[in-house]
Amino acid sequence: MIVIGIDPGAANTGFGVVRTVNDRMIALDGGVIETPPHLPAEQRLAQIHESLQKLIDWHEPRAMALEELFFGRNVGSATSVGQARGVAMLAAAQGTVPCFDYTPQAVKKAVCGNGSAGKGQVQRMVASLLGLPEPPSPDHAADAFAVAICHAAGARSREAIAAARGAGRGRAMAPRQRLAG
Q: Which of 17, 69, 70, 174 is close enough to 29 for a disulfide, judged by CB 3.0 to 4.6 Å?
């Protein structure tokens, strides 16, 4: 299964593409989509959308995993992150890729075993889980890999549970689209 993880942002949108093979996870692609600060917001969002469409067409993921929006003190920043998240979801919908949301705590717990892990710990665990020689950089790429790992790690469990429930009822359970930790 191939999962694309997204760490949305108007200036920097991180992406991480992970393939699971049996119990192993492999990094296929990752990085940051950077948009120039001098461009109007709609052009920055168009660039993010176009880049994500190309990644989806190239890798053909079965799922897009996104970290839920964290509302801090900066409302303007939260708005621009929400807009970038929206164009990521639009690109996924246009590619018929289902989206799954994870809280920051769920991502950290899935990757590090601790929902309050720091950025450095998350980066080191992402490198370890994906067999990378060093932690992914910048941190937007590492965060995107982390959310992809979170989804991929839970996918087998969800599929097994759905199959077991479906066998008992004669039908498979619909997947939950919002998953919290």
A: 17
pTM assigned to the model: 0.86
Q: How far apart are CA 10 and CA 69, in angstroms?
A: 13
* C-alpha distance from residue 58 to each of 52, 118, 127, 179 (Å): 10, 32, 23, 27
Cα-Cα-Cα-Cα torsion 40, 42, 45, 49, nearest 10 degrees, comes to: -140
d(CA 129, CA 27): 9
Pick the CATH number of 2-179 from 3.40.30.10, 3.40.50.2300, 3.30.420.10, 3.40.50.2000: 3.30.420.10
20 Cα distance to chain centroid: 14
Q: Which pLDDT tens digit goes with each residue over 1-10? A: 999 999 999 8
Domains of the chain, by residue range, sit at 2-179
Q: Which tokens sit at 165? A: 């429930």
